[in-house]
Each structure stands twice: as C-alpha cells, then as structure tokens.
Specification:
Blueprint: H1 3-19, E1 26-29, E2 31-36, E3 41-47, E4 54-66, E5 69-76, H2 80-86, H3 90-93, E6 96-99, E7 102-107, E8 120-132, E9 135-144, E10 153-155, H4 157-162, E11 165-168, H5 184-192
Parallel strand pairs: 1-11, 3-10, 4-9
Antiparallel strand pairs: 2-3, 2-8, 4-5, 4-10, 5-6, 7-8, 8-9
Length: 196
Amino acid sequence: MMRLPLVLIGALVPAAALSEVPVNKRIYGLHESVHIGELGITVPAKLDTGADSASLSARYIKTFERDGVKMVEFDIAIDRDDREEWGIQQREWDDVELPLTGHVRIKRRAESVQDGERDFSRRPMVTLTICMGGRQQKIDVNLTDRSEFRYPLLIGADALMSLGALVDPSLSMSVGTPRCREDQEDELMMEAAGAH
C-alpha cells in the first residue's frame, strides 16, 4: 500500500517542475517571426535546437575589404512571392553589405559529399541584432543559400541559449509580432544575470 503513493508522487514531481519556467526563460514555438535590425526586415524563422549556429539565406556572397575593415556583400535569397508577402523591398535584400565577423565550418551531410570532397563547408558570418517576441539579442549568423527551405532564417542552439529560449515544437508563431526597442539588449543581459 505504501508503494502506490510514492510512485504517484514520483510521477507528479517532474510535471510540477516543468510547469515552472525560470523568470529569465521564454517559451517559443518551432517557428517564430523575427525582426533583423541591421536589415530592417521581419522574416519567419525556424528554431532548431539540433543546429549549433544560426543561418540566413543568402547568395552572391563575396568578401572584400574597405578602409581596413573586412566586409561581406550578398543578396538575401528569398523568392519574389515571399518578399512581397513579407513586405521586403529591393533596397533591403539587394547588395547588402555588413562587416564580416569571421567564418564557421559547417559539417556537410554524408549523402551530399562526393568522393574526394571536403566533408565541411566554410561560411562567412555576420553579427545581426534579432528581435523575437519582446526579446532582442545580437547573434552570429552564417550566410548560405536556404532558398529551397520555407524559412530563410534558422536560429540554432547558440543563439537560442543567448535568448533564454525554451522551444516547444507543438507551437508555431506563438510570441506574435517582434516588439523590441533599440536599448533593450542591455536590460536583457542584466535580467539574465539576475540583476533588476
């Protein structure tokens, strides 16, 4: 008779623990609307805890140097119908220039590697300020052509951790339209550190 109540209590403890989300964490869906400050655009993004880094769909990528600063120029690779639907103008997607943050090595899928080819690709990175729901954060984003995917922005685990994100794959577009202020990043860093 004593074992049954202990088993029930043991089964209820994890459920109770999951119902309490830490103050500095936010629950997001598998897909969310994200504003990218440096580009002035809002796009749908896929939140992927299985990927380490974030990726933005880009093509015609070239690096160069201007006044001693390494730069990257690219076009945002989103098809015309989606650009129209999301209100993205040509000046926002064409010949974008941003400082180059560095490069990242991304392991390629085994089935896409031909004999004698490298099993990784080297992608340029930029730093972007993203806003998702009411949270804003600077993240490093690699540039690659994602035009065959529905979501032009993929947000990986590194960025999700910096946003204090918990991802519930049963949700989609759950935090609504991005709503951040320019001065919000410092407040979020203090909140994450436990200061008020």
